[in-house]
Specification:
By secondary structure, the chain is α/β, with parallel strands linked by helices. The protein contains 14 helices and 15 strands. α11 links the parallel β12 and β13. α7 packs across α12 and α10 crosses α13. The two termini are 20 Å apart. The C terminus is likely disordered.
Length: 387
């Protein structure tokens, strides 16, 4: 059985790219096709992978200004046509599922396309929230809204090549149903951590923690404001364009540590009072990692956190995306007792081994279904598995 993997672009070490790295470890012989990549931004397990970029790889300035070329990506992804494959797994948060599916031979069946959907294209479907804090230019906002309507049509059309959708969370499954009118399986992304025990505290006083890219849509300003107002200690780990704004609004009890090694991040997670998670994420790996280390989470009650955080067991929620609501949640959190063992046990639902088994089983079933003729393409381009 030959397998290929398609991903949007490999120019950062985020959660979606981690999924690709684990897929590569599950299927090490699979070629990886992408719009472009940066060798210095690959997860370690992918350093020796067979990575095949599109013609965009040779574009000048693509590395530094990749967002400017987004209008080319729908065309570039069509130049990717993995051949001689039985199964193609796309890891898509925007463009990857739009590759060109071709037959192994002229008389053979088309390969099965399994799409691991991190989310339908945010830029197309949630344009106002996407650009709210990105620019104040009326002209740029007008252009972005105009292009988003075209991208929505493209996004819907390209879902027809997908035989099986996998959603990374229930909220993404809802989007797939609403935007594409398709059903999906839910397989959370793989999570694993190296450190499994508490260590001597890294701070002289107890602290809350943020581990995140510092970008405005993650609403880290709520955590910074809440801890500054209440005098609670907050440690912020991560880099990003919103750092300067956050530092200006931070009080004396907030520390910005910038980039930290994976081992250091684990130690801070294991020793914090709680991870603060004030934004809306499609899944959110960081809260699960924190839970695996025995520490609870205080999260905004929306998105993937509703799948991973159990009220009173692994963390608590705040229901409005405001500083006052977060402060109320912190007060409530500090009145509760937390059991490290119970937190860890709950988090193991999302362990990497669960992801690996689910993917292997699904691929095997999909290939067997094709061989037995149990998958038939319907007129709208979807497939039906009736084993």
């Amino acid at each position: 059985m030959k397998i290929a993997i398609v991903h949007d672009y490999l120019n950062q070490m985020g959660g979606a790219e981690r999924v690709v790295s684990v897929l590569h470890e599950i299927f090490p012989e699979a070629s990886i096709h992408t719009l472009f990549y940066r060798a210095d931004k690959l997860w370690p397990s992918m350093k020796s992978a067979d990575i095949r970029p599109s013609w965009l790889q040779k574009f000048p300035l693509i590395e530094k200004h990749f967002k400017l070329f987004f209008w080319l990506y729908p065309f570039a992804i069509r130049s990717i046509a993995p051949g001689d494959c039985d199964v193609i797994i796309s890891s898509s948060s925007a463009y990857a599922k739009g590759f060109r599916k071709v037959r192994k031979q002229s008389n053979s069946k088309l390969p099965v396309h399994i799409c691991y959907c991190h989310s339908p294209m945010r830029f197309a479907w949630s344009i106002d929230s996407y650009i709210e804090n990105e620019t104040n230019s009326t002209v740029l906002k007008f252009i972005a809204r105009f292009l988003s309507s075209w991208l929505r049509m493209w996004d819907v059309l390209t879902n027809n090549s997908v035989d099986i959708f996998i959603a990374n969370s229930s909220v993404v499954a809802d989007r797939i149903r609403n935007f594409y009118h398709r059903s999906s399986l839910i397989i959370p992304p793989p999570v694993s951590v190296e450190i499994s025990h508490k260590e001597e505290s890294l701070e002289s006083v107890s602290y809350y923690l943020i581990v995140s890219r510092l970008v405005s849509y993650k609403r880290l300003d709520l955590a910074v404001e809440a801890c500054s107002r209440s005098g609670r200690r907050l440690v912020v780990i991560g880099t990003g364009p919103d750092r300067e704004r956050l530092e200006k609004m931070a009080g004396d009890t907030v520390s910005f540590l910038g980039f930290q090694s994976e081992a250091n991040v684990g130690r801070y997670m294991a020793n914090c009072k709680a991870l603060l998670f004030p934004g809306e994420e499609d899944f959110g790996i960081t809260p699960v990692e924190t839970n695996m280390l025995g520490s609870p989470v205080v999260a905004f009650a929306c998105g993937g956190a509703l799948d991973t955080v159990i009220e009173g067991i692994t963390g608590t929620f705040f229901t409005e995306q405001t500083c006052d609501s977060l402060l109320d949640a912190l007060q409530h959190f500090e009145e509760l007792e937390w059991n490290e063992v119970a937190i860890r046990q709950s988090a193991m639902r999302f362990h990497r081994s669960v992801f690996e088994k689910s993917i292997r089983d699904l691929v095997a079933k999909a290939v067997l279904s094709v061989d037995m003729g149990a998958i038939e393409v319907r007129s709208e381009g979807k497939m039906d598995m009736s084993m």
